[in-house]
Amino acid sequence: MARQSSPASLARYKEKRHFDRTPEPAGAVARQAGHSYLIQKHAATRLHYDFRLELDGVLKSWAVTKGPSLDPTVRRLAVHVEDHPLAYGAFEGVIPKGQYGGGTVMLWDRGDWEPLGDVHQDYAAGKLKFVLHGERLKGAWMLVRMHPRPGDRGDNWLLIKERDEFAVPGDGDELLADETTSVASGNSMAEIADAPGTKTWNSNRADGKPEPPKRRRVAVGKVAGVKKAALPTFIEPELATLVQRPPDGAGWLHEIKIDGYRVLCRRDGDGIRLLTRTGQDWTGKFAAVAAALGALPARQFAIDGEIAVLDAEGRSNFGALQAALSDGHDDRLSLIAFDLLYLDGHDLRGAPLLARKKLLRKLLPATAETATLRYSDHVEGAGVALFAAASDKGLEGIVSKRATAPYRGGRTGDWLKAKCIARQEFVIGGFTEGEKARAGAIGALLIGYYEGGALRYAGRVGTGFTAKLASDLRTRLTPMKIARMPFDAVPAAMRRGVTWVRPELVGEVAFSNWTEDGVLRHPSFQGLREDKQAASIGRERVAAPTTPTRAAASGPNQVAGVTISHPDRPIFPDSGIVKLDLARYYASVAAFMVPELLNRPLSLLRCPEGLAGECFFQKHFATGVKALARVKITEAKATHEYVYIRDAKDLVSLIQEGVVEIHPWGARADDPDKPDRVIFDFDPAPDVPFAKVIAAARLVRKMLDGLGMTSFVKTTGGKGLHVVVPLRRGPDWPAVKEFAHAVALTLGENQPDDFIATMKKSERTGKIFVDYLRNDRGSTAVAAYSVRARPGAPVAMPVAWDDLTPKFRPDRFNLKTVPGLLARRRIDPWRDINDAKAASSLPRQRVGAAE
What we know:
Elements: H1 11-15, E1 36-43, E2 47-55, E3 58-64, E4 75-84, E5 93-95, E6 103-115, H2 119-125, E7 127-134, E8 138-145, E9 155-161, H3 174-178, H4 189-194, E10 227-228, E11 238-242, E12 252-256, E13 261-268, E14 271-276, H5 287-293, E15 300-308, H6 318-327, E16 334-343, E17 346-347, H7 353-363, E18 373-375, E19 379-380, H8 383-392, E20 397-402, E21 410-419, E22 422-433, E23 442-451, E24 454-461, H9 467-477, E25 498-500, E26 506-511, E27 513-514, E28 520-521, E29 524-528, E30 558-559, E31 562-563, E32 570-572, E33 577-578, H10 579-588, H11 590-597, E34 602-606, E35 616-618, E36 629-635, E37 638-644, H12 648-656, E38 659-664, E39 677-684, H13 690-706, E40 712-715, E41 721-726, H14 733-750, E42 755-756, E43 768-771, E44 798-799, H15 818-824
Parallel strand pairs: 11-21, 16-18, 42-43
Antiparallel strand pairs: 1-2, 1-6, 2-3, 3-4, 4-9, 5-6, 6-7, 7-8, 8-9, 10-17, 12-19, 12-20, 13-14, 13-15, 15-16, 16-17, 20-21, 22-23, 22-25, 22-26, 23-24, 26-29, 27-28, 30-31, 32-33, 34-35, 34-38, 36-37, 39-41, 39-43, 40-41, 40-44
Helix pairs in contact: 10-12
């Protein structure tokens, strides 16, 4: 369990240092849990290596007098010293003579560490085992406290390499002799000592030169939309909607699109974190950028930007970025900063974009066009002309942003992107063997994207690889081999010689266009995307074009390419939520919700005038947008049309038509008579506590586990829970309904005081109705992430089974909280629900046999 050290844990560190005379950071205990690791080579009174492990918000530190060795028989003395702040992990430079630890400091290694066992218990016992994922040190290691002996002056431990594939018997000091440069700057100790600026920290300078002037902090001043608030832990990034061409009218500013990793740069005092768009902490990967951010004249900020490697012409190259990270050359990285969201106690997100960028420009150094920190400049108007110039120069494209818009997470329509070169992320599902020069490496990758719960094949990509990348990919993919093809379908000619792999890795691919068969033309591999989850990858579709002749399409009320009429119409009067808010919510969760709804017939709850007016269910959606896809389904003696969605634009189009709740079938439109879901709806009587509902869901999960069936759980936006089982298509609706009924009856027979399988409310007092009737042709259940038409705008939210503790509160999920929760969530608990491997078959044995 994550803990936080007391601020007093850094007292010894601060007592030993005068921060007006040393470049070392003063630091503070971090609030977020992490497992960063680093070694700093330190030429103080005597040369040694400072070994540091992040634990409970600080760096636990040992001075390893002779440095680490890869030989398991070598035991190196490691003297336990004072805790250091996390900000120290990015420090490299010279501590002035006369100060504590005076001498040159090099960042010699960095990465993450993984404790083996109970880390707090083992640390206290003095026997800490762990795995290092560093750039130089890898594999299993051990720190063991020595028994104190007479005359010992410190807390002495031993650093020992354990025997594994990374051990090198007989290594001795060879690793230290071979690796003599910084993993951050590439400089030697002498080069670090001689680097410009390293001798300017001591306020009592011996050379008589004046101290460099300190930059003043940036004053926010009076800007409309700014409010005083605490620094958010994480901010959901605003995303751009793909369009065919950029807007060309007034009110838009245009920036060059950067091909890199999106990051939120967060500073709170001396703690600096660089977070990916999904909230992963990648500060260790971008240490040089973190160090540059530490020099900015602000104690708190949140900067939105992109980490990239730029060539001499200022063009970003994702392959070069991958190579720099692989080789440990983070000195090649630049942060292209394009938005300032928070500054010294002020939340700027409500301010107009132009005002935010003006403050950002003042915050960044004057050399921000050529330094590690770069300002993303822009032009106002003339979007089409800039797009043409970007195309001529071989750039990826441009991003157009509404100049007066506030900052909102998700795809709001305020940011648009137009690409000169088609490219997007794809999931890797297989590979072929390399030949000739690529022998022993991969020859080509088979790639795809998720749609309708299946992995759709998008073609092979066999170009764009360096020899090293092709070899590295083979190493990564080989342990991921599986027997079955992960794609829903692949042409027979394309299956020959293919090794199938678990669809977990994501790669970025450039291509010319799509064929009519849904395959890429001229694909070229650009690199792996470690910041993207495979389950979130769908086909990127172009929204309606934004042109001067379609002013309404690019107006302030556009969401995901859909113009929202009556945007201020109250939908949830009790919460102040209007129609535009509802549309923006659905756009913000589309990446999670669309894979759940894709190609499923829908029943819809519409509230055209909001909850204050009439709300009604509608199965046969005859009105509205003609572009919405429909499927004809025969019911009784008549054939009716059901709507289904394909992308975020379709989803938001439903909201434009007054939809609030979305209820999908448990089958897909291509074969509505073959269900691929079983749903158990636990509907408690009003007097049943929620803890009892949790116990009921867990009991059914146990039954299903006994039948070899994988289950997932979500809240309903009310007091119940849904347990969902993905099915292999084959059984018809009567068979699935019969199975669900059998489960409900078994529960009622075994625990009649707790469960009931009848809808009669007169018999349900104190009991939970196990509603199996959701599993019938034409029946539906509320979709995951759907808002419910109830006061407070609650949301039906997928959760992990482990989340269902006595403290669990389903009412915490609503329209206002869910987007932020999704942004901070590290793992999607439903990430495997659309995976073919998770699908179960209906059991052949009696349900009661699972008891």
